[in-house]
Amino acid sequence: MLAAAVAAVVLSGCSEKQEASDTVPTAAAETTESLPPLGPEDFPVPDEARTKDAAGAEAFTRYYIDLLRRQQDVPAGEPLRTLGPDCQECLRIARDLDEAAAANRRFEGGELSIAGEFGTALSDDRANLSFIARIEAGALVEPSGEPVDGTDAAAVDRLPSAIGLDWSTDKKCWLVVGLSFG
Description:
The chain is an alpha+beta fold. It has a domain at 47-141 and 151-182: Nuclear Transport Factor 2, Chain: A, CATH 3.10.450.50. It is 29% helix and 26% strand. Strands 2, 3, 4, 6 and 7 form a 5-stranded antiparallel beta sheet that branches. It has a two-stranded antiparallel ribbon with strand order 1-5. The protein is globular.
């Protein structure tokens, strides 16, 4: 903090003699609650998705859908398990990602996105959101580039979807407890 103040004086070209202050300014972090890091190091859960209100639940849902899309490219399931430890569909998707990685398979296409607005119901520590998802055509492919039998899927423009979230006081974040596409 002191180095920043010194740099500001030097950069401003101020040549007047200034007396040193007897007090040290209080850091902003001391006045706001600090959030522990959560999510992949290079793709953390954003602060706006970590508020216990409808806007936070919606931001978390957008983040989680983006995380699903991101992890499909990696592929790795651990971040999905961390943010959806009690969500059976999340655990299934995480397992599929891990199995694809172990077999050196990759996903082509199949990108998931949210099309439209949320329907959000919020009560106490629970949020239920409905939304329309869009999924691009895609398949799981072998290292050779050939699609794995039975994994070719056509695009779906309007897939009714829902997510259930519970607020975690420990993590200061929403966690997925249920996920449904279609």
